Each structure stands twice: as structure tokens, then as C-alpha cells.
Amino acid sequence: MARRRTERGDFSPLRVYSDPFQHAAIAAAVVAPLTRGTSRRVVVTAVAASVVIDLDHVIAARSARPRATTGLDQRPRSHSLLVAAIAGAAVAVRAGPAHGWATFAALGSHLLHDAGDTAAATPILWPFRPARQIGRRRQVAGTLLLTTGSIAAGYAAARARARAAACADCAL
Ligand SMILES: [Zn+2]
Asked: Could you tell me the residue range of the domain that residue 124 belongs to?
């Protein structure tokens, strides 16, 4: 599996500036099936989570300059499924399970997209496994898995909503 082909300090303006849009588009697509049974605002939550996570590069590089943020040997540890799960749980407590799932799925799709390229290694399974890249095929498989989770959650939410509406009718 290709490791890091891009040398430290390599800088592709096209990649750097299109990256947030790619992450946002993928996160929106992954979470879209969830809107079947919940509010469309879950897509806003997903897009925000998928873009905000890259602020950790700025913190790790102690600079907002693209050359510094993309020149790290390894992506920051906040680029891990553990952190995605904690963030998802925290959002679920505050804003409900749909937004919690949207946060986790968006961060998961972001990690998979990062781990699918040939740039700096991604600590996706930190602290259990060392940082590594997984390739585009596994990225697609993982992203489809997250989308399947959104389809299932959207279906369950739609059924729960229908049941609640039916019960409201029969209680009268
Ligand atoms: Zn990233």
C-alpha cells in the first residue's frame, strides 16, 4: 500500500483549496438519506463537522499557512474514529441522536477521504494502530458503510415519526 509519496512541504494549491469542498460534498451525500425521517438541518451539521475538523492542522502546525498545515508528517490525532465517536456522542447529548450520527458519519467520511490519498498518514485507528493510509478502495467501502448507516437511521426515524403520528390520532 502506498505510504507517503508526497514529501514534507509539498504543496498543491488545487488540492488544498478544493479539499474542504470535497469533504463537505461527501459528508452531505453520506448524511442525505437521514433526512428521510429527520430534519434537513442534519446535513448542515454534517457539512460543518466535515470542514471544522481540519482546524486541528492549524493547531498542530501552529500556523494557518497552507504550506505549514499540509507539511505535517502525520495528520493530527484528532483525525481518528475514537475522536469522531466522542464528538458524535457529545453532539447526540446536546442536539439529539440524528445530529450525533450526522457528526460521526461526516467525521468518518472525512477520515476515510484523508486516509484514501497518498499524502500524510492518517491516525484513523489511534490509539490502537499506527497512522497509515488505506487507499481509495477501502475509502469507498467505508463511505458506503456510513451511508448505509444513514439509510437505516433515516428509515428508523421515519417509522418512529409515523408511529407517533398514528398514536396521536388514536389517542383522540
Ligand atoms: Zn482532514
From this structure: 13-167
Q: What is the pTM of this model?
A: 0.86
CA 120 to chain centre: 17
Number of domains in the chain: 1
Q: Is residue 66 part of a domain?
A: yes
Distance 14 CA to ligand 1 centre (A): 15
C-alpha cell at 93: 447529548
Q: Ligand 1 centre from 156 Cα, in Å?
A: 30
74: β partners: 121
pLDDT tens per residue across span 71-123: 778 899 999 999 999 999 999 999 999 999 999 999 999 999 999 998 899 99
Ligand 1 centre and the CA of 161: distance in Å?
35
* 97 within some domain: yes
All three cell numbers of 111, joined, read 477520515
